[in-house]
Design a protein that fits this description.
Elements: H1 25-65, H2 72-79, H3 83-124, E1 130-132, H4 141-144, H5 165-179, H6 190-202, E2 210-214, H7 224-228, E3 233-238, H8 241-254, E4 258-262, E5 275-281, H9 289-302, E6 303-313, H10 322-328, H11 330-334, H12 340-344, H13 348-354, E7 363-368, H14 370-373, H15 375-382, E8 396-403
Parallel strand pairs: 1-4, 2-3, 2-5, 3-4, 5-6
Antiparallel strand pairs: 6-8, 7-8
Length: about 400
């Protein structure tokens, strides 16, 4: 069971930083609209776009070329002038921007109090976690120089001393972002829950002592590992100071001691062999492939013998049909994620082997979303009795694994 929040006395009067966000009636209505719009775009409009491809764009391509599109790039060429693609893209960009804008006024009103609570958490440290920030740290340009996901100022932005603004915007905006989607409503770290349960059921003798989450943001998908592996120490690294401050305050209040630090996953300050498990969530498609290779080599250094990787990511082109590959690569062109398509053109298990892992231990798998699939069905999936749901909108996750 998840750890219960500490009461006020146990937490030395530490307040719940989330509770300081108090959206107005109109702001809540706006957020519900944005969630509904996101669902409409990613479910209904996506289905219309696929139908238009089969009905019009694909036949037109075949008529002009005397053959069907060979891959996702040719499908994109066929779809660029398609009106359903244009409507889908325009609505999706606006819904993406509105997810953040719909929470920003409430965060701005609460920001002084939120900063105060983050400072209280660092001073009181009631749950025994840790927060390490480096004032001289220079975030990599591939994060700092673009508004990744259209989030204003990107995840590394700071507007005041001890800032938590972008951390709060990312936390509450992501709830709006995913709130209307199938399998994702009130998402409480679904990826971390799913991967942790998969590892527990698939490898019952695996008992990690220390776990590292790369690109942890505020630790939402790191915290579930404490529920599944309660004896493990949980560490998270990220380049975004605001998100780390906000997440640290959240988990100190909730009684989950996470050890968060501002570091670039390409080169960390942890000693060799320090971790038994290294994970991530939607991380590698945000970094250049050259950086991905450095990170995986660093993962190899950090793992103890017998330690495991279990990185959740978007499925690569080699694991999906050409149309779905075209659909997934939308973010590369319109969501300020310029390394997205290059990453997805790679073969993750091959990247792991190149980083030093034994190729025989490197693999790919789709796993169900544990919470929506149900624990009993999830166990049956691990036993090979049930297939995972089709990938998309959080019904299942793609992970790649390796063992040192």
């Amino acid at each position: 069971m998840p750890d219960a929040p500490l009461n006020a006395a146990e937490a030395h009067q530490l307040r719940d930083i989330d509770a300081l966000y108090r959206p107005t009636h109109d702001e809540i209505a706006r957020q519900r609209f944005v969630s509904a719009l996101r669902k409409h775009v990613l479910v209904d409009k996506a289905a219309e776009m696929r139908a238009s491809y089969e009905r019009a764009a694909k036949p037109a391509f075949i008529s002009a070329r005397r053959r069907a599109p060979r891959d996702h790039l040719e499908i994109r060429t066929a779809m660029l002038d398609d009106m359903t693609f244009k409507v889908f893209s325009a609505l999706r960009v606006n819904a993406q921007e509105l997810s953040w804008l719909s929470v920003m006024d409430g965060v701005e009103r609460a920001l002084p109090e939120m900063i105060g609570v983050a400072r209280e958490a660092a001073r009181l440290n009631p749950s025994g976690g840790s927060l390490r920030l480096d004032p001289a740290f220079k975030p990599p340009a591939y994060v700092a120089d673009i508004d990744v996901h259209h989030i204003p100022g990107s995840f590394t932005a700071e507007v005041t001393k001890d800032d938590v603004a972008i951390g709060a915007v990312a936390h509450f905006g992501t709830k709006v972002f995913a709130g209307g989607l199938p399998h994702r409503k009130d998402n409480p770290g679904d990826v971390g829950q799913s991967v942790a349960h998969y590892l527990k059921y698939k490898y019952p003798d695996f008992k990690p002592r220390r776990i590292l989450d790369c690109g942890t943001t505020g630790g939402k998908n790191l915290a579930p590992y404490r529920d599944v592996f309660p004896d493990a120490e949980c560490y998270g690294i990220d380049v975004a100071p605001s998100a780390l401050r906000y997440g640290y305050a959240q988990w100190e209040y909730r009684g989950k001691p996470l050890h968060l630090s501002q570091q670039n996953a390409e080169a960390t300050d942890f000693p060799d062999g320090f971790f038994d498990l290294i994970v991530s969530c939607f991380f590698f498609h945000e970094v250049p492939v050259a950086s991905t290779k450095k990170i995986l080599r660093e993962n190899y250094r950090l793992l103890a013998k017998g330690g495991r990787l279990a990185h959740m990511e978007l499925p690569p082109n080699c694991e999906v049909d050409p149309y779905y590959a075209f659909f997934l690569d939308w973010d590369n062109y319109y969501n300020y994620e310029p390394d997205y398509a290059d990453y997805r053109s790679q073969v993750p298990k091959t990247l792991c082997a190149e980083a030093g892992f034994d190729p025989k231990t490197c693999s790919h798998i789709f796993i169900p979303n544990w919470r929506s699939f149900g624990d009993e069905n999830f166990r049956r999936f691990v036993a090979g009795e049930l297939p995972p749901p089709e990938h998309g909108n959080g019904a299942s996750w793609f992970i790649f694994e390796a063992v040192k």
